Amino acid sequence: MHIKKLSPLLANQIAAGEVVERPSSVVKELLENAVDAGATRIQLDVERGGTRLIRITDDGHGIEREELGLALARHATSKIERTEDLKAIHTLGFRGEALASISSVARLTLSSKASTASDNSTGWSAIAQGQDMAVDIQPRPMPVGTIVEVRDLFFNTPARQKFLRAERTEYVHIEETMKRVALASPQVAFTLKHNGKVTKRIPAAQSEEQQKQRIGSIVSNNFLSQSLVLDASIDHLRLWGWLSHPDFHQNSNMSQYVFVNGRAVRDRTLNHAIRQAYQDLLPTGRVPAYVLYLELDAEKVDVNVHPTKHEVRFSDARQVHDFISRAVSDCLLSQGEVLHAEDLRRVEEVHRAYIPQNHELKDEYYHPRLEAGVSVEQEPMVRPDDNKSRQLTGKERHFQSYAPKGAGQVGNFILVADRFLIQPKDKGLQVLDVRGFWLDYTAQLLHKEWQSCDVKQRPLLIPERLGIPADTLSDESISNWAKLGFDLNVTGPQSVALRKVPASILHVDIKQLTQNVLYETAQADTHETAVVSLEQLKTRLIKALDDYWQVDTKQSWTDFLTPHNWQQSPYCQFVLAEELAGWLALKQKSESQAG
Fold this sequence. Notes:
Layout: H1 8-19, H2 23-36, E1 41-47, E2 53-58, H3 68-71, H4 98-103, E3 107-113, E4 123-129, E5 134-140, E6 145-151, H5 158-161, H6 167-184, E7 189-194, E8 197-202, H7 208-218, H8 221-225, E9 227-234, E10 237-244, E11 256-260, E12 263-264, H9 268-278, E13 290-295, E14 301-302, E15 313-314, H10 317-333, H11 341-353, E16 369-370, E17 374-375, H12 394-398, E18 414-416, E19 420-425, E20 428-433, H13 434-452, E21 457-466, H14 475-483, E22 487-492, E23 495-502, H15 510-527, H16 534-547, H17 558-561, E24 572-576, H18 580-594
Parallel strand pairs: 1-7, 11-13
Antiparallel strand pairs: 1-2, 2-6, 3-4, 3-6, 4-5, 7-8, 9-10, 10-13, 11-12, 14-15, 16-17, 18-19, 19-20, 20-24, 21-23, 22-23
Helix pairs in contact: 2-6, 9-10, 11-18, 13-16, 15-16
Protein name: DNA mismatch repair protein MutL
InterPro entries: DNA_mismatch_repair_CS, DNA_mismatch_repair_MutL, DNA_mismatch_S5_2-like, HATPase_C_sf, MutL/Mlh/PMS, MutL/Mlh/Pms-like, MutL_C, MutL_C_regsub
Pfam families: DNA_mis_repair, HATPase_c_3, MutL_C
């Protein structure tokens, strides 16, 4: 076998295997180029999750017509010139291979007008095609800036296409990539459009207050309201940003962002240092959220570790690790007493005191969570009628995901056994049977709507297919269901689609509820002379609410409980802390006997 020199196309396709993994990889490289070009506004248009089209338009300084062809060549860049430049990288890109790699696996058009061009001059477009990647340049009217269009990603490498995920999945990766670049570039405004619709707008931040608002819009307003501000410096190192309070945690790494000299990175040294600072403050399996910026001399960090530039190497990794761990620890400890791991284990013991039969114990006993797995908003643990504020104890901080502001609002609670909301009160605990309270409230609301013939409905995003034979449903039966707020459509001999349900029915497995009640009524219809009456159907549905209760720990109970005077409800009881385990066990025993 003879040695041959690879064609430019094949060489670039091999290089693309390291740089272009999926559409979001393309987006990352092009967004970073736009930021490096001094853009203040960047618009990202994608179609079909980026597989059909990725277009990035910026208002940066642009590229001269004479350099357009060179920009598509491999190992061509304006960001470094000498070997010494690699020792202190100050730009996001520098390898000079992104455009060449992308153009080898997609149809890429590079259009630009340089800021040095006259107002009445035109811009230019360049396309590299063929085995030799020959560049064709044509005039294109456009304002100053650059437009990069990438169409039909992996059209010439079918094997790579097989590894792409669903359109929605690829879009989510693209949005996450844009978030990271936006968090690193507060001076730039970003717009994201998917299939022609604007899905995200991120205004530029010119002040500290706008920067905070931007963090909230990108990460989460709940994170921002629960975050601690960090700013620490030593020698040539500075760490600043936002950390989640120990009471505000999640079960995934989604809301964790670390930037080194403005570059989003994934680094074991940094992650370990942060975990070490939190290790005694979080329940097992839970992790914090944070947006942190590390600044240091460019000469002391090597970003030329991997083609994707996600990884970095520090000249003194131990110093960086210890500095970050101490800075985060000091920030957390400065917030007063917090609940430590030993106390969390005691709370978990209480949680295990009441576990319904056939109930699988979950590890998410601590807080209901919002959005990307993050706990709910926090308020100070001070009642409006308190004359004097006081320092919170550790156990009070444990319950601090909700704060009472007056009657009818949710207090600081934890969810135990997927049923009981518990919060500290005076010298004991306030325990709300949220399942019983919800069932009673929902039943009353449904009866009221049914009686007034005004049932508010909510459409299901994806209709549920119910495994019920169509011939078991009579027109009268479907009509009765419709009167109660359920929109049923026969879609086949063995299939019925559920398209709408009563808006007031929440926290249940709606598919199983509807399917089983349908089955029960269909069975009754075959043994009785008449169709199950409307009143009988109402009774069966109310009973099924309790049977198919489905707790959702991601669902905030605030919106549900806030309008109601739940503290005066018979489902709310006061229990001494030392009697809680016994009270829950007694509750379990009485309910099993009643059942």
